[in-house]
Automatic annotation (TrEMBL), chains A, B:
PROSITE patterns: HTH_LACI_2. It comes from the Bacteria. One of its GO terms (molecular function) is transcription cis-regulatory region binding. This is LacI family transcriptional regulator. Gene3D superfamilies: 3.40.50.2300, lambda repressor-like DNA-binding domains. Residues 7-61 form the HTH lacI-type domain. The keyword Cytoplasm does not apply.
């Protein structure tokens, strides 16, 4: 699709040390800018052989009033909360949304972008699939100056705005809580190691251990592919280990629930024998027995912030300069870990 | 939008007593038809002043290879299963899907249809919002000959294909099971009475009672708006009633789970004091304590059947005549109702 390199507004902005929105305004001949600035930018654009991107222009001008959203999966409570936040915000501002799911599949993600761009959405909100390691499809979007931002599953390689939660701190809160309850042999059961959240939550896990003087060499990390089958197998293997842990921090709630079921089946008392904490705050976690200690992620608020920021960019209310929004997580202590009373 | 009545292929088909797809083929000058049939249809179309619908034509000819899906809500496990079935099927046949949710809101549903049609999807799969009582937006789609089918939340007023589950029979299975366990004072806790599933599941409830010689006058129906607050209130009120039931059939699993939590809080033994059954087979139902007896709806299969049928229609592999697919439900007995062993 690429026919030689097309100069972008971003490159002009970089060359002159001004913001992209200043370049954009200059090229639109906005009266807000000083004539000298405008002249300087227009001349630079000419000298760089800048061609005003017709597609991006038509996207910006003939607004469809629709945003496209791409999420890895819709069965996840977290992503459906994101979507609710995005939709409510978009609706209030006169926009509708169309959603595609990648099913954690890279090719599907590329197809989704193509589908939504062909549908002439005004902008995109994207959360990456697990499989996505190559970002050329995002680079192409960026080069074509199609407005988009990323949320939750993001990559640092593309300079657009990002909305994430403070994963490492959330994990730290959960593990710190387990330590406060008197646990010292705390295992971390993690998803695939190359996942962003696997790494970030491991960071928080290790930070909390360190604070209590437990070195990384004494940490216990188990890996699962997050299927129920493998989650159960890892838990059973862990119970066979010579040094059985006295607490488990599970990377996500669905994994924590699989672990909880195995522990109950094996007659392991929760939290007396093994305390347990998850991360996500799924609806099931509150009603299971014992109720699951977890870390709440503000999924709905993430969606609101992401949609408002993208719409602010589209309406030129904020600059196009990439922003990073990092939302806080909250510990929700429940019966699966509260040991203090019984000591 | 309507400028006088436009004659449709359906009307021509009705007039001649042939199928819509025969009319469609005749107007496309298909070689499969007998020249006499073709002539008869073309003449009738002319005499009725039929105007070949340009939008529908462009939709049919310049295929976007995208289907639009509208569901009431994405947080529901059932609807996200439908979507997975639709997406996997569409993907296998070279199509992508774009999804909109109505949030159970009629205006949002209308906006979604407009958005997806403007995006030139090849066809639509629609599940109605709770609020939808007026079907003009669907009638307009039908009149414009934009291909669509309905699933789960359907209306009989629009003659398009429909995919539903056998709600009444599923409810019958659950209540019949409670009766088999020896329960005789069985309450039905229902959502809003005007909902299609409220009515259908009540039918099944009454059928089962009747089979055991319990007249409708002895049935006990409680109504909730399905919010957790109201679900809890209705359950508490029911426990105060003079004639406390010995079993409860809850219209959907999330309601059953709210009821279960109240019963546990109040020290009511499940199933010894009150047996409980739900309907949906949500993931939580299997892991809650006691595990919840429920009726499984084949959500994924529904999505597969709906997508395959719509794509078959688009590819002229089946006629456009409306079909009704009714899928079976299955009882999943679990600990919340199994009393036989203890008797």
């Amino acid at each position: 699709m690429k026919k030689g390199h097309q100069v972008t507004m971003k490159e002009i902005a970089k060359k002159l040390g001004v913001s992209v929105s200043t370049v954009s305004r200059a090229l639109k001949d906005s009266p807000e800018l000083h004539p000298d600035t405008k002249k300087r930018i227009v001349e630079m654009a000419k000298s760089m052989n800048y061609q005003y991107n017709l597609l991006a222009q038509s996207l910006r001008i003939s607004k469809s009033k629709v945003l496209g959203v791409i999420v890895p999966e819709l069965t996840s409570h977290f992503f459906s909360s994101n979507i609710s936040g995005i939709q409510d915000t978009a609706y209030k501002r006169g926009y509708n949304i169309m959603i595609c799911q990648s099913n954690e599949n890279y090719d599907q993600e590329k197809a989704n972008i193509k589908t939504l761009v062909s549908s002439q959405v005004d902008g995109l909100l994207i959360s990456l699939s697990r499989e996505t390691k190559n970002y050329d499809h995002l680079r192409e979007l960026y080069d074509r100056e199609i407005p988009f931002i990323m949320f939750d599953r993001v990559t640092e390689e593309i300079p657009v705005s990002k909305v994430t939660v403070d994963d490492a701190h959330g994990a730290y809160l959960a593990v710190h809580h387990l330590l406060e309850q008197g646990c010292r042999k705390i295992a971390y059961i993690s998803g695939p190691e190359d996942l962003y959240i696997s790494k970030k939550r491991k960071e928080g896990y290790l930070d909390a251990l360190k604070e209590y003087g437990i070195p990384e060499s004494e940490s216990k990390v188990y890996i699962t592919d997050l299927t129920t089958e493998m989650n159960r197998k890892v838990t059973l293997d862990m119970l066979e280990d010579k040094e059985r842990p006295d607490a488990i921090f599970a990377m996500i709630d669905p994994l924590a629930i699989d672990i909880l079921m195995v522990l109950k089946e094996k007659g392991v008392k929760i939290p007396e024998d093994i305390a347990l904490a998850g991360f996500t705050n799924n609806p099931t976690s509150a009603v299971i027995e014992p109720s699951l200690t977890t870390v709440s992620q503000p999924g709905y608020e993430m969606g609101q912030i992401a949609a408002n920021h993208l719409l602010d960019q589209l309406d030129d209310l904020v600059s196009d300069e990439p922003q990073s929004f990092v939302l806080h997580t909250t510990l929700i202590p429940r019966n699966s870990s509260k040991k203090i009373k019984t000591k």
